[in-house]
Amino acid sequence: ASMGDWDVRLYSILPNGTRELMSDWEPVDGSGIARFDLGVGSLTNQAIRLYAEARVRSPVPEYESIRSSPSPLIISILNGDPLLGHVQALRVIGPAPLRSTFYAMTDSRLEARDLGGVRWEMSVDEGATWQTIDNTGKMPQRLTKVFEKGRYLLRAEMTNRNSGAKSLTPEIEVIAFLIPQARIKGPANVFINDTGNFTLTNVDGTALDTTNLVIEWSEDRGKTWAAGSETYQLTRDKSVRVYLQARLKYADSPD
Known about the structure:
By secondary structure, the protein is mostly beta strands. It is built from no helices and 21 strands. The termini are far apart.
């Protein structure tokens, strides 16, 4: 080259004003280009200010000429990896119809800025098949949905806005169950050594369908429970106040 042979290296200026070398000296080719491979993995989601520093290859050992670029090249290092995340829910189990809100969140708070589109998926067959949920909300990372009785799996597909890389969150289980409604029908008072007969009925007093029902009774304000049926008998050999309660659930509902 008419201006001699040169080597170039890169450095950055840290926020505290100190200088950090980013490369070794590399030769400038005949086209005036020097190439560098920079390790910037530790600088993800940061902006670095790169300066170039050039020195001439002098045939005279006593002569040295080093020149620096007057202004930096500012580079933002973006994260392009698939995002690790999870689904956070306000409620995943409750009576049907169950209304719940879910959030797709990155495991790393620093990666939250890299989150782009979110697509929600649901399975009703324990993960054998998945269907996309139509999310009409303004925030794609938030989903509000009403679930009828059943067990569901839910997950979110997250897209890295920088690279388009996609990743799936671990699935969470949603359980919506029915609560049977009933009341206890029977006498308010029972004579000593007599037997009081009590029956569970529908709230309107009609016969209760006990198919697939788990029924328990308590005589001590719910401290202890005993399995039973829709009928219950109570007898005492002395005067005592008994607090009779019953609870029931469908056999396929969670405890």
